[in-house]
Amino acid sequence: MTNLTEEQKRQIRKRREKECFPIINRSCLWHARLTNEQQLELARWYQNWLDAPATGIIPVTPAWINNKTKPEEILI
Predict the structure, then answer these.
(1) Number of C-alpha atoms within 13 angstroms, CB side, residue 24?
(2) What pTM, to 2 d.p., does this model score?
(3) For the CA atoms of the chain, what is the radius of gyration?
(4) How crowded is residue 52: how many other Cβ atoms within 10 Å of its Cβ?
(5) Do 69 and 25 meet the contact criterion of CB atoms below 8 Å apart?
(6) What is the C-alpha separation between 39 and 68, in angstroms, rounded?
(7) Alpha helices in the chain, H assignment, sequence order
(8) CA 25 → CA 31, 46, 68, distances in Å?
(9) How far apart are the two ends of the chain, measured CA to CA in Å?
(10) With contact defined as beta carbons under 8 Å apart, do 24 and 46 qualify?
(11) What value does the mean pLDDT of the chain take?
């Protein structure tokens, strides 16, 4: 684990709120349309985001997510 300052952890949480939660908090119907592989990858990505304030590692967004969402569909 990395020794991050509280400010660095706060910045990671802020990024997580903007980059991760709008994807994860989509409807059950959206999630049901994902393949099993995509669901597993999404779960790993989400867990890595949850761990990011402790690890200091920002996870890379799976490329397919950009093909499954349109900017106007993501609630900010």
Answers:
(1) 18
(2) 0.84
(3) 13
(4) 19
(5) no
(6) 12
(7) 6-19, 21-24, 28-32, 36-55, 65-68
(8) 9, 11, 14
(9) 31
(10) yes
(11) 89
pLDDT tens for each residue of 52-63: 999 999 999 999
Cα 7 to Cα 22: distance, rounded to the nearest angstrom? 23
Token digits of residue 60? 């890379």
**18-39 pLDDT, tens per residue?**
999 999 999 999 999 999 999 9
Q: What is the DSSP letter of 62?
A: P
- Per-residue b or e along 1-15, where b marks 16 or more CB atoms closer than 10 Å to that residue's CB: eeebeeeeeeebeee
Both tokens of 40, joined, read 């597993």
Q: What does the domain layout of the chain look like in residue ranges?
A: 6-68
Q: Which two three-digit tokens encode residue 63?
A: 């490329």
Dig out the tokens for 25 from the structure: 């908090």
